[in-house]
UniProtKB/TrEMBL annotation:
Keywords: Signal. This is Lysophospholipase L1-like esterase. Residues 1-22 form the signal peptide. InterPro entries: Ester_Hydrolysis_Enzymes, SGNH_hydro, SGNH_hydro_sf. It holds the Pfam family Lipase_GDSL_2.
């Protein structure tokens, strides 16, 4: 069986014909670019719950997932073991993380300060002072940015001192006119503990982070960006 050969000239004519057709189709299109919608920026500063721990990387943490659910651009700062006072192994507090990683950036639409879990061994008076100082610093740097505080995160078996830290932070938030969200009021374990807790019994699994993100994104909502202080 012989294959039919197409002359090079015929190929060239067909190619040029297609080019002319494509040129004719695009000639009438408006080349004016369509402006992109501005995406709100959501910044976080926090501890290992915020930046991820164990098998859960930062981009799968509840902070990143919250931004995805809201359709915002996340910037996540902080480190495991840190708190308002506690500096952990990295040797820096929330204030230090804010100063080093966030304060030099353009103002975000929303700043979430999340933590207190690692401050339970410190006097609550010191925690209150450190939290107030961080709020004052953020507001002085970004006067128009809305700030939300999230209290200590315990998915199960929170010790009494966790509630003392929670109350201290809630007091600061109320005094400064900042929204305070309390994870200790939520029920995170609805079935097997291992579904939401890693083997250490403290940090969230992927599912635990997803539940935190669903709760936080619903609490923040699109209106949070535009709501006044």
């Amino acid at each position: 069986m012989h294959r039919q050969l197409i002359a090079p000239a015929a190929l060239m004519m067909a190619f040029c014909s297609g080019c002319g057709s494509a040129a004719g189709e695009t000639a009438g299109l408006d080349p004016t670019p369509v402006p992109q919608k501005s995406t709100p920026v959501l910044m976080f500063v926090g501890d290992s719950f915020t930046v991820g721990s164990g098998p859960v990387p930062t981009w799968s943490s509840y902070a990143a997932e919250t931004a995805r659910l809201l359709g915002w651009q996340p910037v996540i700062a902080g480190a495991g073991g840190t708190g308002y006072i506690n500096k952990g192994r990295v040797g820096r507090s929330f204030q230090d993380s804010f100063d080093a990683e966030l304060s030099w950036r353009p103002a975000p639409d929303l700043l979430v300060i999340s933590g207190g879990h690692n401050d339970r061994r410190w006097p609550t008076l010191g925690v209150r002072r450190a939290a107030a100082r961080l709020l004052w610093t953020a507001r002085a740097r970004w006067p128009e940015t809305r700030v939300v505080m999230v209290g200590p995160i315990w998915l199960a078996d929170a010790p009494p001192k966790a509630y003392a830290v929670r109350d201290a932070l809630a007091e600061v938030a109320a005094r400064e006119g900042v929204t305070f969200l309390d994870p200790l009021k939520q029920r995170w374990v609805t079935g097997r503990r291992s579904e939401v807790l890693l083997p250490d019994g403290v940090h969230p699994t992927f599912t635990g982070h997803a539940r935190l993100a669903q709760w936080l994104s619903a609490a923040l909502g699109p209106a949070a960006v535009h709501q006044g202080p």
